[in-house]
Write a structure and sequence with these properties.
With 390 residues, the chain is of the alpha+beta class. Helix content is 28%, strand content 32%. It is built from nine helices and 18 strands. Strands 1, 2, 3, 6, 7, 10, 11 and 12 form an eight-stranded mixed sheet that branches. A six-stranded mixed sheet has the order 13-14-15-16-17-18. Helix 8 runs antiparallel to helix 9. The chain is globular. It starts with a helix and ends with a strand.
């Protein structure tokens, strides 16, 4: 019984869906760390763009550090799922690549990278502290060099490191490590305390990129020292997280690859993606056409339904093209007929203002009582799918 509970819990993750039972065709031998273990590859996935997850599910060796060091839940989610999206190019799920959380970068190693690099008196103090506490100390920090431990205003660029492993089929019954994705999360704002006063410094975007490339190069060189990772392709992606007050997540800005056996990254390729919040001055300035369209959509709802309390939207752009739009419509609830009428009206206006079939749309109509209606339209679909909650 316990075995089935573990399997069902792991399969409830966003990345995979479970069939009622596993047949023999799902059982494979997983070759890793010079060992062979039995594993299961679920046959079902939520969509063709999702990876099947290797089971039993293994948590990442350094997974807790990502949650510790990213500013918002939005960044935490986007850093992980965005890295998986980028993995589709070098390790496509349609070509029988399967996902597993990173098993090779250990917590102590990553935690060491996130520190400053110490020299002078700062290094002496840290070494003494480690000796007095009988702990090991490695001056492995990939953030800037400091000689004074009080120099908290020195920016920390590296915020977190995330590893993902992708397994590929050797034959019908065997899978092996086929590639590694490494996400390097960078700060856009440096938060620190000076004389017990909280302060912050906005970091220059070009410097963030420059420091990120240097940090990524060092991570790849040290990662290659692990014999298990010596001959697999490694793709690294730079992610810039948003400030703590942001209502949209950060974005990946560049990626590079180290060929099997090589410790060198072969140039950087820009990633053009961004997030916008509607309505906002930033969206009005950066995406004026879409901001105006959203404003007209919002005004029409207000003209016909006085009990709605506002409309907000979060948009995701790739290569300057709108790819995903999530809209929240809160309303004062007075009856189910009003919910039905509003939902029908919104569907018509979606087709009028956002007819492009390459946009993933999700509209949530809510009240103080909870979710009232959900409207979704996947890219490529002509008609939306609607559900009104009872």
């Amino acid at each position: 019984m316990k075995k089935w509970i573990v399997i069902l819990a792991a399969c409830s993750m966003l990345l995979s869906a479970c069939a009622p039972s596993f047949g023999d065709d799902n059982e494979v031998v997983q070759e890793t760390n010079n060992e062979k273990q039995k594993a299961i590859i679920p046959k079902s996935t939520i969509s063709d763009a999702d990876y099947s997850v290797v089971l039993p599910f293994k948590t990442g060796a350094a997974r807790g550090l990502t949650a510790e060091n990213l500013n918002t839940r939005l960044d935490l989610d986007q850093f992980e799922t965005g890295l998986m999206d980028l993995a589709q190019e070098p390790f496509p799920s349609k070509n029988n690549y399967y996902y597993q959380e990173g098993q090779y970068l250990k917590e102590d190693q990553v935690r060491g990278w996130l520190r400053y690099k110490y020299e002078g008196k700062a290094l002496e103090t840290k070494e003494k502290e480690a000796k007095d506490s009988k702990q090991e100390f490695s001056n492995a920090g990939l953030n800037p060099v400091i000689s004074d431990l009080e120099a908290t205003d020195t920016p920390k660029y590296l915020a977190s490191v995330l590893e993902q492993n992708y397994f590929k089929r050797v034959d019908d019954k065997t899978i092996e490590l086929g590639g590694v994705m490494i996400g390097v999360a960078l700060n856009s704002v440096h938060y620190y305390k000076q004389d017990d006063i909280a302060k912050e410094t906005k970091l220059d975007s070009s410097t963030i990129r420059k420091e990120g490339e240097k940090i990524a190069a060092q991570i790849v060189k040290q990662t290659r020292q692990n014999k298990e990772l010596a001959d697999v392709p490694i793709t690294v992606a730079l992610y810039v997280q948003q400030p703590k007050s942001s209502i949209v997540p950060g974005e990946f800005i560049a990626k590079s690859e180290a060929k099997p056996g090589s410790s060198n990254l072969e140039g950087w390729k820009d990633i053009n993606e961004s997030y916008q919040f509607f309505p906002s001055p930033e969206a009005k300035s950066e995406k004026p056409e879409d901001a105006d369209t959203f404003e007209r959509f919002k005004e029409e709802i207000g003209d016909y339904f006085p009990n709605y309390t506002g409309v907000i939207g979060k948009a995701h752009y790739k290569d300057d093209e709108l790819k995903e739009l999530k809209i929240e419509i809160p309303m004062q609830f007075y009856g189910k007929a009003e919910v039905i009428g509003l939902t029908q009206f919104v569907i018509e206006k979606i087709n009028q203002y956002f007819p492009q079939d390459y946009i993933d749309l999700e509209i949530n109509i809510t009240s103080t009582g909870g979710q009232e209606a959900l409207i979704t339209r996947k890219a490529g679909d002509k008609k939306p799918v609607t559900h009104i909650f009872k």
